[in-house]
Amino acid sequence: MANNQFLFELGIEEMPAKTILKSEQQLVDLVTSYLNDEKITFDDVKAFSTPRRLAVLINGLADKQPDLDLEVKGPAKKIAQDADGNWTKAAEGFVKGQNATVDDIIFKEIKGQEYVYVKKHEVGKSVVEVLNNLDQVIAKMNFSTMMRWDNSNYSFIRPIRWIVALLNDEIVHLEIAGVKADRITYGHRFLGKSIEINQANDYEEQLLKEFVIVDYDKRKQLIKKQIQTLVNEHNWEINFDSALLEEVTNLVEWPTAFAGSFDEKYLKIPSEVLITSMKDHQKFFYVTDKDGSLLPYFISVRNGNDQYLDNVISGNEKVLTARLEDAMFFYEEDQKHDIDFYVNKLSGITFHDKIGSLTEHMQRTSSLCKILAEELGLNEEQITDLTRASQIYKFDLVSEMVNEFAELQGVMGEKYALIFGENETVAKAIKEHYMPISANGALPSSIVGGVLAIADKLDSLLSFFAANLIPSGSNDPYALRRSAQGIVRIIQQFNWHINLNDLIDQYLKQVQENHLLSAELIDQLIENRNLLLQFINERIDKNLNAEHISKDIIQTVINSNQHDILTIIMNAKMLSAHHDDSNFKEIVESLTRVMRIVAKQEIPDVKIDSSLFENESESQLFETFNAIKDAFNVSGSMNNYEYLMELAPIINEYFEENMIMADNEAVKNNRLQQLSQITNLLMTIGDLCNLVIK
């Protein structure tokens, strides 16, 4: 077995920390896919990355591609030979292209027709020949932001400054963006020097001598160890933030952790502000005492050794102090005004230039809150709190603190609301209306917060669809998919039944009566209404898919006459729970037989007349259906499946005893109407014809 090792390193100007691991994986995927396509076998791949480099070390590469014995198909025999059996130009051209002669031709029959073939022995390319084309693979790397830096017009995440390409101890000659591969790499920008790599396998060890820990996992573990040592020395507590740890690991090549401090006077600023200043802005780790209270200390990681560390600590403390001094000023200044001052300023803030101001957005949201409060049966106290919250919930957006720390919107709204005398329920709703802030983010925990969050997100959807600002493809500049997904998740969290169709009707009435949207926008929303419902259904689809509901069941419940999100989800779970039952196939076949007949017929507008029944099976179906219809929970219930089980055998007997398309027109219409009513009830679950049954 071949034991070749191939080292490939791209030396790059400092990459954004948050892109490095994805870039590393992209390099691995592209290179291994290329080798597999080229039939070059290998044992394993080890990836490396730092802010200045992406690299792979591939072990156990084969010496060459396998040789191949091929039979190459040419033209049909009738084209390859003329009537006298002489070879035509088509045949001669074919064999010439295969480096063969007409003497090498054989015939093979395919579907009754003979074709020309030649046998061909293809010698596999050497691994060096294959690796020489690696530049074409690197050209396929794609990043959200690309740079061009010279006349080559080559684009990459950052300018490429050096390339190492070694097969064992030999340079693989290739060129990317005008940079030729060599065996020279570079150590730490300030502590190291250039390095001549002798063997591919020496890469990691030689870089270590020049102050570069090129293995991401080793760098990460060293940082954790250094930080934990500092924490233990000072008897602090730390909760490692995984995202921050990853980012810091990708900011350094030679990490050295250190501790700093700030004045205790800043601890009277809300802890969220302090944490945001340290974690998000300075990439510092904050520390607490045993009770979880924030301490006036931080831990940071420098990209270098411990020389002149006192200067580094002092510099970082000064930067943080300046930021905290600003935060203290903003915090004190913001408290010099009341909520009405901030609410009044919102009329001058544009929600969107096609839609109006933030004040108008809040007014529409407030209208939705009233509708939802009645629909969900909120009590008087909850309605009072919801009404108040909906009137002020965006006020912190015009505060000095949120202007400086935008990520604290809602958080500071809650803090300031309490300071200004609002009750805890209102304050909490102001914070929670942003939830969830990510696909799997935390959801509101309070009823008032949950309703406000739905209303705020729903008005965003309705107003942007009214303005024809509808997401397409991956383009979603206003995060409407996240808003729709948030609505679905919140509804499921609280088990709320909300009929979206009815809600949109009431919304349209409110905005029209109160002039909260222009007539033009209202008309456009009416036109885009079905697109909006479909858009929300796509989020339900995604939600159910994440819960491992099969695609056919999802399509079944999405294609229902339901506009209640929770009911759609409950119906999907009901069908999924019984999908593997032994009698599921039989039940579904019975029910879908009814639905398929109805789909093909024009249903007469008649009332079912029991005097037209010709046998017991008609009476039994009529009576059973009416009993089930009264007990059936159209809002979704696991018990509904029992009613389907009860109905299915009676339907089977009904079809055995009756011809639906009877000669008697009145009897036929009576039967079609009966099947139509059954179908309408089944469609509250979904179009069962979409179910895949085995």
Automatic annotation (TrEMBL):
PROSITE patterns xrefs: AA_TRNA_LIGASE_II_GLYAB
GO biological process: arginyl-tRNA aminoacylation; glycyl-tRNA aminoacylation
Pfam families linked: DALR_1, tRNA_synt_2f
Domain DALR anticodon binding residue range list: 590-686
UniProt subcellular location: Cytoplasm
Matches recorded under InterPro entries: DALR_anticod-bd, Gly-tRNA-synth_bsu, Gly-tRNA-synth_heterodimer
UniProt entry keywords in alphabetical sequence: Aminoacyl-tRNA synthetase, ATP-binding, Cytoplasm, Ligase, Nucleotide-binding, Protein biosynthesis
Main location as per UniProt: cytoplasm
Gene Ontology CC entries for this record: cytosol
EC numbers, comma separated: 6.1.1.14
GO molecular function, one term: ATP binding
Catalytic activity: tRNA(Gly) + glycine + ATP = glycyl-tRNA(Gly) + AMP + diphosphate
Matching HAMAP family: Gly_tRNA_synth_beta
Subunit record text: Tetramer of two alpha and two beta subunits.
Family listed: Belongs to the class-II aminoacyl-tRNA synthetase family.
Protein name: Glycine--tRNA ligase beta subunit
Organism field: Candidatus Gallilactobacillus intestinavium
Gene name per UniProt: glyS
